[in-house]
Amino acid sequence: MILARHLSAVRYLALAALIAACNGDDGGDESGQEPDFPADYQTKYTEVRNCRGSGDHDLNNIRILADPAALAPYQGRAEPFPAGAIVLKEEYDFGDLDCSGAIKQWTVMRRLADGTSPNTLDWAWQRVDAQRRVFDQDATRCISCHKGCGVPEDGYEWTCAVP
């Protein structure tokens, strides 16, 4: 009898937890942070690296685009990125070898003014889900990885893009 009551209480608590989890909390960022790129970025940004696998992005396939301010520095590797320049990675499923399916998420680098945020390499970092909700801001994971590619032969200005 006591065991039956205990199991009923456990079931009730599990059901209450499930209802609470489904009641409006979508798991997204609660800060209301907006993505650092516009919804229509594909009409304004230029592809700078075509579809390829990435061991550093959960084995997702990625495609890299640059906004107009980032395009010349990214391609030429001679000028610094101006503050506000955006480099964006579209991330696709591991099996989407030509990046033609649905985007799983975006990873975004926005250049900050020199010296304003040495801990983040003077870039702002975002991870954005497929519904355009920011779920990670200035992730240590991104910064730590990109710290290893700051010199020209390993990736221009922390971009990790070897020519």
Structure characteristics:
6-stranded antiparallel β-sheet, alpha+beta, disordered N terminus, 163 residues
Describe the structure.
By secondary structure, the protein is of the alpha+beta class. It has one domain. Helix content is 23%, strand content 25%. The relative contact order is 0.14. The N terminus is likely disordered.
SS summary, helix count: 3
Helical residue percent?
A: 10-25%
* N→C terminal distance: 71 Å
Rg on CA atoms, Å: 20 Å
Counted up, domains total 1
Mean pLDDT across the residues is: 79
Query: How are the strands ordered across the major sheet?
Result: 1-2-3-4-5-6
In terms of per-residue confidence, which ranges show pLDDT below 50 for 5 or more consecutive residues?
A: 1-30
Main β sheet profile:
6 strands, antiparallel
> Could you tell me the number of beta strands?
6
**How do the SSEs run, as a string of H and E?**
HEEHEEEEH
Shape: globular
Determine the structural class based on helices, strands and strand pairing: alpha+beta
Strand content: 25-35%
Task: Give a brief rundown of this model.
By secondary structure, this protein is α+β, with helices and mostly antiparallel strands. It contains three helices and six strands. Strands 1-2-3-4-5-6 form a six-stranded antiparallel β-sheet.
List the helices and strands and how they pair.
Blueprint: H1 2-22, E1 46-53, E2 61-66, H2 68-76, E3 86-92, E4 103-111, E5 123-129, E6 134-137, H3 140-147
Antiparallel strand pairs: 1-2, 2-3, 3-4, 4-5, 5-6
